[in-house]
Fold this protein.
Amino acid sequence: MTPRPRLEGKVAVVTGGASGFGKGIVAKFVEEGARIIIADLSEEAGRAVAQELGCSFAVTDVTKREDWERLLRTALDTFGQLDIVVNNAGATYANKPSEEVTDKDFDLVMNVNVKSVYISTNVILPYFLENKRPGSFIQVASTAGVRPRPRLTWYNASKAAVINATKTMAVEYGPQQIRFNAVSPVVGSTGMTHLFIGKPNTAENRKAFESLVPLGRGSTPEDVANACCYLASDEAAFITGVNIEVDGGRCV
């Protein structure tokens, strides 16, 4: 007997879903039966991925409340419900000494990585609460928030804030059956990899980072997507407040 798709009947918003880990998450969720709205700042890439994978798309600046309000309306108008929010969109600045970090760098990581999670929950939690619907929020954090390394201080701090907020809200909203979990990848190969390593994103330049991972490689979009799919599914109905380190043992 063919197993039932794990996300059948569920509707999800995936931010930053046009590329990298986000696209991997969207592809996995579609494969498992979910209906998806890709929320991304890049209209061209977002529409292309939506067409490729059979999803909806909405141009979204995750740091803007009005964009989140529009996303919720779109989900309800299009699908009649919302079940899962994956806060995947993220930003970093180039690897550099902390004294060289600018106000612009700081604002970027705090707004995109932290404020976006604040706004998403502030806008969407009332929908779950007022309709007495269970819900699932999944934040894509980072091993940087668990085991911070030098030269990315405020990026590290932003991801630590996301993990802490996720755990706090898991406790706060557990009685209403709204789950909050996080996934923390180690550096992989995405559009931001060159910023993390401070060098061009080549196999040779990634070797120094990957040599510190016991399983010998970086995170892939598929790795991250598999963890997110589990957390979004009913298989994880009793899982809340966790941060799954998708890191090949890096944080041990």
In short: The chain has eight helices and seven strands. Residues 5 and 161 are 33 Å apart (CA to CA).
